[in-house]
Specification:
Oligomer: single chain
Number of helices: 4
Order of helices and strands: HHHH
Radius of gyration: 19 Å
């Protein structure tokens, strides 16, 4: 099984890197996303349905990670610009209205 997982990485990694790079335009960011993809695949390997499409599963994980990374970037950019999202302003207001003891 260990040999097969190595083969899987060799087959999937270039495809996932191209996909991630097409979305991020950053080699380091793409590599991070692909590494996280393989970590999630490894952690969920016992839930994978034997005979299912591994490539489709890997692309779905990568896509979700790219979406999460994009959302984090927007959130960080808003904070860097001094803009605080509405939902966070509500949280801050509720904390000042009800200070913890």
């Amino acid at each position: 099984m260990h040999q097969r997982s190595g083969e899987l990485v060799l087959e999937l990694a270039p495809r996932l890197l191209r996909y991630a790079f097409s979305r991020t335009r950053s080699r380091p960011a793409s590599e991070d996303v692909v590494q996280q993809t393989f970590l999630q695949i490894h952690c969920a390997r016992d839930r994978f349905v034997r005979g299912a499409a591994v490539l489709t599963w890997a692309y779905a994980i990568t896509r979700r990670l790219l979406i999460d990374a994009s959302r984090r970037q927007v959130h960080e950019a808003l904070h860097d610009d001094g803009v605080i999202p509405v939902e966070e302003r509500s949280i801050r207001r509720s904390r000042t209205a009800f200070p913890s003891t």
